[in-house]
Amino acid sequence: MGWLGATLCSVALIVAGGLVLSSIAVNRYLQASTSVMHRGDASDVGPTPAPAELASIDHVVANVNGMPGVATASCAIETATPSPASPAPSTAPTATSTGSATFSYNVSVIMNPSATPGQAADVVFSMTKQLQNSRVNLELSSPAGDGHAASVVDYRHAFDAPVEHSTVAAVSQAVAAATAVPGVKSVQVTVPYTWNLASGDLNVAFAAPDTHQTEALKDALKRTALSGVEWSTSH
User: Fold this and answer.
1) CA–CA distance from 69 to each of 66, 119, 125, 145 (Å)?
2) Burial code of 71-101, b = ≥16 C-beta within 10 A, e = fewer?
3) Secondary structure element (H or E) that encloses residue 64, with its range
4) If you write DSSP's letter for every residue of 70-106 in order, what string do you get?
């Protein structure tokens, strides 16, 4: 089974405690996913999910692959051994535990550069309707295109219950507003399982330091889901 073009989840092992998934370096993610196909036998990768659940995830990813604006969609299973020194917060959903290890389904969707905010929202909303599974994460990447910068929206364990289309669309429109600001190079947003965006969930990279760009970004986000959310900045 080849990885490219496939929608079946692949299995990967992470030795360090906790889940590790790049949110910006899409190329590194693709390379890591490809390398999974060259791992050793199944005994090397730890616990795996139930076949029925895996088939359900694969079906959703296959559907997403055919949606308008989507360039590619894939899934990988990240397996990790939690660190005793860093237990997961009791108030947040956690990955499934099997023995001493945990796993999550990490879905990666890359949109076409010409995809609209509405098409990006449709991808997320489709997943919220089909999946009620807190183990699912989504990394939704949009390359830079005409009139907008690149963006990555990382939905962390945000699919445990259905979400209103208006909520999903509001996040998509806020990201689009941020990426349309002149001088913005890239935008990264982390959507937590609560869907409540807060300070620390937004990172904006500017092409160059400019106070006018900062003010323009604040103004662009005033009437969006990112209104009042403080952001970290990189160049």
Assistant:
1) 9, 6, 14, 13
2) ebbbbbbbbbbbeeeeeeeeeebebbeeeeb
3) helix 51-65
4) EEEEEEEEEEE---TTSPPPTTS--PEEETTEEEEEE
- Do the beta carbons of residue 204 and residue 149 sit within 8 Å? no
- Which residues pair with residue 231 across a beta bridge? 202
Q: What's the pLDDT tens digit per position in 180-213?
A: 999 999 999 999 999 999 989 999 999 887 888 8
Residues 94-131 pLDDT 10s: 555 545 567 889 999 999 999 999 999 999 999 999 98
Nearest to 201 by CA among 180, 219, 225, 218: 225
Sign of torsion, CA 65 71 74 78?
negative
Structure tokens at 9: 């989840």
CA dist 13 and 34 (Å) reads 13
Q: Cα–chain-centroid distance for residue 153? A: 5
Closest listed residue to residue 126, CA positions, set 144, 109, 145:
109
Q: Are 13 and 44 in contact (CB under 8 A)?
A: yes
CA pair distance 13, 32, nearest whole angstrom: 11
Q: Say whether pTM exceeds 0.90.
A: no
Phi, psi of 215 (to 5 degrees): -65, -40
DSSP state of 138: E
Question: What is the four-CA torsion angle of 165, 138, 93, 198, rounded to 10 degrees?
Answer: -70
